[in-house]
Design a protein that fits this description.
Length: 489
């Protein structure tokens, strides 16, 4: 069987091999309610011929039944807004993911909600994104939600931003309107950088669009002769994202120790960042013991080197005691090692923050107990203003000092996303309470709290001396299972 691709005749095997070699762009859409996020993605899929016949017929049927595009018009937003509540209200509530592929690149699109009450959903969709499309209504320009979504993108370290000025058909495709919105947005970016100290200034590309009518989405529009740039899809296919992985700092969090027989002992995991080669000297954290890489093993055979995001098994020349949660790094490039750090936290739980509670902290393959020592400030995501706070509630963002019960091996988030991000888990409900980005290491001597371990004060609890040995035995067993508890007698 033969296929024709870009006027080149090839076998199906060659086509599949070519498809496998394409890189992947993860992107999110953000914007105010009714700015046209879902419509834009639907139009992108429709015009690039990436819909199956059954999807198209269902879209046409649903557009007549519950669509908001007008009589006889296709409502492209229905491709993504699949929840009943979304269709009834005409809004996006949860993150919707769509996958499609062109001849040049594969895409995963996260359609995120615009409402402030769904901030945690946008953080979820943006946590893995390489690029953000921020939509602006040409009639209203840069508004509060535009600033909020840009702040959230900067918080997540997204390096590429597309400013999509949508609904240009409602302002007669005015160049003056478009230029004014672009100028306002870039002025806000400079202000955001100055006030919040952005480590990475995103690269911004601006497009005048009509998502409903398809102008400048897949094909250049004749109705914007003054616009000299490319169509949106052309830009998405060609924007360079190869620098998204940190290739300088080798970090290998150990996930599993593989011991299939007496002759082999390897350490399994995903390369979080950096490059490791056979023969490289590595150091194991926290023990500090050194060895050299004997082999790098995968299902398909041995490799001479490995890089992110490959999952490999590393065999060392020496027998070193390493277990899950520990890390292999190069001796001349070691991460921060410590039990305290300052972080930016996004609260994601319906239950408000309780600083007296001891949370689980999940960082790479490591899990430990931690305490939220203090809240430095909260950020108003609409105005960027900071305010004093003692706790946080759902969707709030703030600077929090955290202390863990054991040492972690971490980098600052803006230097290394994989080793600079973490999750807080409620020990009672097992809910994800918050996600965080590490900003800077701290010295535990500068923190008022003694440690991050949950504490049992036996005298205060009224436990008689004859029962305390049983308590100590139970605590030792919990410690053996990885749950450390401090006992005060």
């Amino acid at each position: 069987m033969e296929l024709h691709n870009d006027n080149i005749q090839m076998s199906i095997e060659e086509y599949l091999d070519q498809d496998e070699q394409k890189d992947l762009l993860r992107l999110l859409t953000a914007g105010s309610v009714d700015d046209g996020k879902s419509t834009l993605i639907g139009r992108l899929l429709f015009d690039s011929k990436k819909l199956y016949e059954d999807q198209l017929s269902a879209l046409e049927r649903d557009s007549q039944r519950v669509g908001n595009a007008g009589a006889g018009q296709i409502d492209y937003a229905l491709l993504l807004d699949g929840l009943k509540a979304e269709r009834e209200q005409g809004i996006t509530i949860d993150v919707a993911y769509r996958y499609f592929s062109t001849n040049k690149r594969k895409f995963i699109i996260a359609d995120t909600p615009g409402h402030e009450q769904y901030t945690r959903n946008m953080i979820t969709g943006g946590s893995t994104a390489n690029l953000a499309i921020i939509l602006v209504d040409a009639r209203t320009g840069v508004i509060t939600q535009t600033r909020r979504h840009t702040f959230l993108c900067s918080l997540l370290g997204i390096k590429h931003v597309v400013l999509a000025v949508n609904k240009m058909d409602l302002v007669d495709f005015s160049q003056q309107v478009f230029d004014g919105i672009v100028a306002d947005y870039k002025e806000f970016l400079v202000k955001l950088s100055a006030e919040n100290g952005l480590r990475i200034m995103p690269h911004v590309a601006c497009f005048p669009l009509s998502a409903l009518e398809g102008d400048n989405v897949v094909e250049k529009s004749a109705r914007t002769p003054w616009y000299e740039g490319s169509a949106l899809l052309d830009y998405l296919e060609t924007v360079k994202i190869g620098d998204e992985h940190n290739m300088q700092d080798f970090r290998f969090p150990v996930q599993y120790v593989l011991r299939p027989n007496l002759d082999f002992r390897g350490f399994c995991g995903k390369v979080a960042s950096g490059i490791v080669r056979k023969g490289d000297e590595v150091i194991a954290l926290p023990s500090g013991k050194r060895s050299k890489v004997k082999s790098i093993v995968t299902y398909d055979g041995e490799l001479d080197y490995a890089f992110p995001p490959q999952s490999v098994t590393i065999q060392l020349e020496d027998e070193i005691d390493i277990s899950r949660g520990e890390m292999l790094v190069h001796p001349d490039n070691v991460p921060h090692i410590g039990r305290a750090f300052q972080s930016m936290l996004v609260w994601m739980d319906e239950v408000p923050m309780d600083r007296s509670k001891s949370f689980y902290l999940k960082h790479t393959t490591n899990t430990t107990r931690c305490k939220l020592e203090s809240v430095n400030y909260k950020v108003n995501v609409n105005t960027m203003e900071r305010s004093d706070a003692e706790c946080m509630v759902l969707n709030e963002i703030g600077s929090v000092v955290i202390q863990t019960s054991k040492e972690l091996f971490f980098d600052e988030y803006y230097q290394n996303k994989r080793t600079g991000a973490f999750v807080l888990i409620d020990p009672i409900t097992n809910n994800t309470s918050a996600v965080g980005m590490i900003c800077a290491p701290l010295d535990t001597a500068d923190i008022a709290g003694a440690d991050a371990l949950p504490t049992l004060d036996l005298k205060k609890l009224g436990i008689a001396p004859e029962h305390r040995e049983a308590i100590r035995t139970a605590v030792r067993e919990l410690s053996r299972q990885g749950i450390a508890v401090k006992v005060i007698e």
